[in-house]
Amino acid sequence: METLVQSTLAAPEGDISFFSLFWQAHIVVKIVMIGLLGASVWCWAIIVDKFFLIGRTRRQMNRFETVFWSGQSLEELYGTLHNRVNHSMSALFVAAMREWKRSHEGSRPAIGSLQQRIDRVMDVTIQREAERLESRLLILATVGSSAPFIGLFGTVWGIMTAFQAIAASESTNLAVVAPGIAEALFATALGLLAAIPAVIAYNKFSSDVGKAVSRMEGFADEFSAILSRQIDERG
Amino acid sequence: MRAGLIASLIGHSTILVWGLIAFPDAESFSVPQVESLPVDLVPVEEFTQLRLGERTAEVREVAALQPAEVETEEPPQPADKPGESEVQQPSPPTPSPTTAPAPEPEVAAEPEPAPAPEPEPEPAPAAEPEPAPEPEPAPEPEPQQQAAPAPQPIVTSVAPRSKPTPPRRSAEAPRDDFSANQIAALLNKVEPAQQTGNASQQPASLGSRQGAQNIRMSQSELDALRGQVAQCWNPPVGAVGAEELKVRVRFNLSRSGEVSSSPEVLNSNGNPAFRAAASSAVRAIMRCQPYSLPIAKYEAWQEVIVNFDPREMLGG
Question: Is the pLDDT confidence value at A198 over 90?
Answer without folding.
Answer: yes
